[in-house]
Design a protein that fits this description.
With about 425 residues, the protein is mainly alpha-helical. The chain has three domains: about 160 residues; about 110 residues, Cytochrome Bc1 Complex, Chain D, domain 2; about 110 residues, Cytochrome c-like domain (Cytochrome Bc1 Complex, Chain D, domain 2, Orthogonal Bundle), CATH 1.10.760.10. It is built from 17 helices and seven strands. The strands form three sheets. A three-stranded antiparallel beta sheet has the order 1-2-3, with no helix packed on it. It has a two-stranded antiparallel sheet with strand order 4-5. It is globular, with a radius of gyration of 24 Å.
Amino acid sequence: MSTRRIWLAWAAGLCLLAVVAVFALAALNRLDETALPEHHAAAPATAELIAHGAYLARVGNCMGCHTQQGSPAYAGGRAIDTPFGAIYAPNLTPDDATGLGQWSAAEFWRAMHNGRSRDGRLLYPAFPYTSYTHVTRSDSDAIFAYLHSLPPVRQQNRTHALSFPFNTQGALAVWRALFFRPAAFPQQPAQSAEWNRGAYLVQGLGHCAACHTPRNALGALRADEQFHGGLIPVQNWYAPALNSKNQAALAGWPLEDAVALLKTGVSPQAGVSGPMADVVFNSLQYLSDADVRAMALYLRSLPQQDKPLPPTAKPTATQIEQGQKIYGQQCVDCHGEQGQGRRAAFPALASNRAVMLADTTNLVRVLLQGGYLPATAGNPRPYGMPPFAQSLKDDEIAAVLSYIRNAWGNAAPRVDTIDVYRARERRGF
């Protein structure tokens, strides 16, 4: 066979494979359509249904992404930064030209459950349909009724700013074929109704796994490491593991303490900061006591997956001496000579698992930009910690954190100057 014929055969084979791949991807990405009921009449948009939808939108913290600062609520336009570029949240008000005015409840359900837009386009998973797929049709209809009750806002949706090939439907089809299948929430008959309600909220609208689960190189959640903790892309905060007693597990806590943390942002055991403070402020504090209790009950039941701690890189004697001096000058008045803190005001640093996380991202961020609990109905005037980005140098921040992580019985790896430098560079401090 001549060389030319060989090349033609190879080309024909590649073309055939490409065609097969296209049809395979199309088939895989259409499997989700079978999950849609053929006939489903949306419930009438009563005042009760709209109020329920408003509540569910709070559970999902929909406003957090779909409202741009200074713009009307739910009018979209906010940039969601990803490692692949910026995705702009769409307008969810019932404007006919730029919002959901022409959408039906079934089309909204398809977006929630299947990750498809009204015209059939695949949606980017920055809209967390990988979690929202568990939301029931009735809850989806309630949210839709609420959004349709809002004043319409004429605000054009912005084009996503994604790099090639991530800006193509083909690439998104491949991603979905690999990492997404629509699925109803799996009720566990052996568990109580309260436990199942908590699991439904955590795994569905709460989309807690979106932050607390590590991601692979393509941005997909690692299904086999759910709730194992991970660095939130671009934001550069570490969401600690919810199934590790060394990180943020609620297992072993009194149920009342777990409820208080979720509802108010503070409890005798811990407090929240960073992105979690935003979640409590914008969402969790508005949930019913029954729903927060159900979520806490479910989170307390997660099987523990503690991993061996990494070898401890001990701070040097010079670093400890420098850190102790800075602690005495800057920290002791609030956190105490023995790191005991002041109850209901400033957290204890001794035996504080957030202080001893192997990943020091959050500690460095808090010291650089300050630490602030959310203002909630249960804790309306929280105390805060001022930022030290301007008053302490990189080596000083590394030293005081290394001292805190190894004083009063604490034992954790030291913080290096390069860790502080990188945090400044990422956030522009």
